[in-house]
C-alpha cells in the first residue's frame, strides 16, 4: 500500500534525511526491506524550495560517488520522490567495456522519468544495487530505450540510451516505482560479491554453466 504525502510531508522528510548527512554530504543508503524501496514514489511537482532541492541533489550526488555507484534514486536514501542522479565515468578494461556496450555517461539528473524499448534487442548481464549491498544478479533488459524525463528546471527531455547506459537508466527509473533489480533477475544467478573471482569478466555464459540458470 502506497502512502499519500503532502508537499509539507515531503519537505519534512527531505530535511530529516539531509540532517543525517556527514560532513561530506554523504547520506545513509537504505537497504532492501525498507518500505520506501517498495513504494510508488511521488512525482516531483516543486514540493521543495530551490535551495533545498539543490542541497538534496548535491547530497545524492556525493552519496553516489562515495558508495561508489553509477546511479542513485531518492528512495535509496529514504525519500519517496521521483528523482535520481546518474553518472558513469569510472575507468574499466576495454574488453569489459566492449562486453557491456559501455560508453561514459556524464552526470545528469532525472525527474519523473519513463522509458520504453526502442528496438527488439535485449542485453543480458549482471547488475548490482547499492540498496542490496554485496550481491549481483543477471537481468535481461531492453538494450535500446527512449527515456523521457524532466531536469531540475522542469524542462522535459527525451533522450535515447543504448547498452550499459540504457541499463543504468532503467535500473534507477525502476526504483521510482518500487522495483528493485532482483524482481527482474534470474534468481539462480544471484552471487555474493566475494564469489566474483569465480567469474572473470562477469561472463554470463560461464556463470550459467556453473550456477545452472
- Give the structural class: alpha+beta
Low-confidence stretches: none
Shape call: globular
Sheet with most strands:
5 strands, antiparallel
The first-to-last residue Cα distance is 33 Å
- Radius of gyration, rounded? 17 Å
Order of helices and strands: HHEEHEEEEEHEH
Mean pLDDT: 95
Q: What percent of residues adopt helix (DSSP H or I)?
A: 25-40%
Output the strand order for the largest sheet. 1-2-3-6-7
* Count of alpha and pi helical runs: 5
Q: How is this structure best described in words?
A:
- The protein has helices at 7-18, 50-66, 94-100, 163-175, 204-211, and strands at residues 71-73, 83-88, 105-117, 122-128, 135-142, 144-150, 156-162, 185-192.
- The chain has 213 residues and is an alpha+beta fold.
- A hairpin with a 6-residue loop joins strand 4 (122-128) and strand 5 (135-142).
- Helix 1 packs across helix 2.
- The longest helix is centred in the first third of the chain and has 17 residues, at 50-66.
- The mean pLDDT is 95.
